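LOG
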Amino acid sequence: MDVYAGIFLTLLGAAFYYLSLDLTDEAAVFPRIVLWTFMILSVGMAVQGYLKFKKTGEAKNPLAFEGLRVPLLVFLFITVYVVAMGIIGFCLATAAFVPGVALFYKNKKPLHILGATACLIGLIYLLFVVQLKLVLP
């Protein structure tokens, strides 16, 4: 699985690097540094996955449902969050999303959940509404 993911991510990085060729030299510096780092780490992941496979000789089925259950559920949570944000607004949707994800990952400490939710909403409000003068959905 790591070999396929590493190859895919390397190709994805190369595609984005190709898109960065249209940028001016000044604007392309940071994206190209990030993309080169991304591609080097992706190649490393592919090599590490290959060496691990060669050492153990066993290959797990990467598309087994048990391995995809949690990522698919988190994707579903994020999809519902994005739809809810358009309907009830950022603050209410985030106030439901953060505790929901925390409880999904079995974090049962209400003070931690409340603190993380309040800090996230507060920081995003300060950054986007107060500083940047943007309107949240």
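LOG (cont.) second protein
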Amino acid sequence: MRAWFAGDFEGCLELCDRVRPHDVDMVSQLGLLRARALLRIDRPDDAIAVVRKVFVAHGTLDASLTARMLLGTALVRRGDHRAGLDILETAYRAAERARLSAVEDQRDNRGYPEPRPEGRRRPERFLHRPCARQEVAP
């Protein structure tokens, strides 16, 4: 990670090449780091190849959303704006749903001795909340 934080993205890629992943999660995280580094050095085609190669390895929702965001970003940087923005929009919607679900789970699991009578999931309370949405420039 020192290479990453020092801005040495080529060095980061070299270090990634030397790592021997021992499980699916490590394959996923290594692929995401590699894709980020490739995007930083303006190699979107390589980043797309890395994300697509390890896309099936993303076991967590967070890693899956990150992979989709990296793929969308790489497509936009490569010039395939429509496809990239579509992927980014889909990932944004999925992330918003995941965030709301996680917030609700966190609230519902704080010190309640028994389940609430109305149930754990109450998404309607989030329907009328404004959300700060960032626009993505093509």
